[in-house]
Structure formats: structure tokens, C-alpha cells
Amino acid sequence: MLFCLAVAAPCGAQSGPESFSYGAEWRFLRSGQVTLDFTAGRTILNLKTVGLVSTLISVEDRYTADYGEGFCAKSLLLDAREGRKHRETRVAYDGEHRRASMTERDLKNGKVLAKKDMEIPACVHEVTGALMRLRSIKPEPGATLEWPVSDGKKLISARVDALVREKVKTPAGQFDTIKYEAFLFNGQLYRRKGRLFVWLTDDERRMPVQFRIQLPFYIGTVTLQLEKFQEANKE
To answer: pLDDT band at residue 6, thresholds of 50, 70 and 90?
Structure first.
């Protein structure tokens, strides 16, 4: 899961509801389906494994995040069904008092697994809000951005490098894009070693058309490619 130096540029407003559908590939297998829905002040991400991978590990996660002006986080809810586990993580962000509180619970027995209360900046992002902020600006290749990101467990100053312009071919079509690397792994937000790349269209829509997570060789690379995109009031 998708994804920054406070930039002296305005955070653009979202034009309307958007829905993105992606197919995930791992070791040349179709391994999952991901949907990413943006509405005013809310992001909903659904992820599930499919095919052979789902027989190895069944995953069905739903991630909901609410944010305010400037894509500053207000709340986060993760409902994660992974194998035999079913866990819920709730995070409340209080920018006025600069605090975030997190509770993780086992939904099978109701047991609280973890709780944390931490200090945060007045404006902090969770990962999908950080993605929206990146979409709202257009860093040119060679630029480096950084801003605070928190999942309620850790707070980091997350860095994004704008790398190169590339043409990307996906099931939804071919796109002119700018490729970015987001530094969230290797003990940053996530302990697992890896690299995260994001391709956004090189136009005013700034659509996320491809994601790639490169993990250690014994796990491999997971690539998400856009298969379907729908805007409000469009088929």
C-alpha cells in the first residue's frame, strides 16, 4: 500500500469523482484487482488477490481515508482480511491539536492489538492524500519533493523524486507520463525493503496509470496497470 518538502505551489482542487481500476501482475501472473475511488474529501481503495495467488493467500482489504483542504488527513480506516486474519485499524488526525490517535483491533475476538497517540504537524497526509497532493502539482523531472506522511503508527518526512518522462502502455491505452519514486519503504513508513514507483499522466488530469513495487528477489516485483477509468457523469 500506494505513496512526499513542503512545496511552494498551490494544492489544486479535485474536479469531481473519479474511479480507477487496476490489474496487478506478480511473476507474470494476474495476482490481484485494485480499485481507487476519489470523491470530494475521501479516497477509497479496495484490493483483493485473485487466481492462483488467492489460493496461496487470500487478501481483501478496504482502505478509506478522509481529508480536508490541502489533502490534510482527517481520518483513516483499514479493514484488512488477510488469510485467517481480520483486523481493523482506525486513525483520527487532529490538526488543530496536532495529535493523531491509532487503534488496531482483531475483529475476530475484539481484542485491541495496538494503540498509539502521537504528535503530528497541523497538516499531515496519509498515503492516498499524499498521492492526491502529488497529482495537484506537476514536479518536472529532476525535482525532489518532501512532506509529512503518517499512518498513525509512524510519522516521516516522505520524499518523492521526479525521474523521467516515459510512454506507458496499459490495458486502458498508451499514455505520456512522468515517472516518480516515492521513498516509503526501507524503514521509512514501511519496514519491508523495497522501492515504489508511480507514473502520472503528463497532462492536466495527472492520472495514476501505473504503480510498481520492487521487493527483494525472493518476493519479486508487483505491477499495477490501469484497466479502466471513469470520471463523474461519464461512461
So the answer is: very low
181 HSE (CA, 13 A, CB side): 11
Indicate whether 2 belongs to any domain.
no
Residue 4 placed within a domain: no
Q: How far is CA 167 from the centre of its chain?
A: 22
Q: Is residue 159 part of a domain?
A: yes
Tally of domains in the chain = 1
Stated pTM of the model: 0.88
Q: Domain residues for 141?
A: 18-231
Q: What is the pLDDT of residues 106-142, one digit of tens each?
A: 999 999 999 999 999 999 999 999 999 999 999 999 9
Q: 54-92: buried (b, 16+ CB within 10 Å) or exposed (e) per residue? A: eeeeebebbbbbbbeebbbbbbbebbbeeeeeebebebb
Is the alpha carbon torsion for 206, 68, 13, 47 positive or negative?
positive
Could you tell me the CATH number of the domain that includes residue 126? 2.50.20
Determine contact, residues 141/176, Cβ cutoff 8 Å.
no
In a domain, 7, yes or no: no
Helix/strand number for the chain, H first, E second: 2, 14
pLDDT at res. 15:
55
Please answer whether residues 181 and 193 qualify as being in contact, where contact means their C-beta atoms are separated by less than 8 angstroms.
no
| 121-to-94, 98, 109, 118, 137 alpha-carbon distances in Å | 9, 6, 34, 10, 21
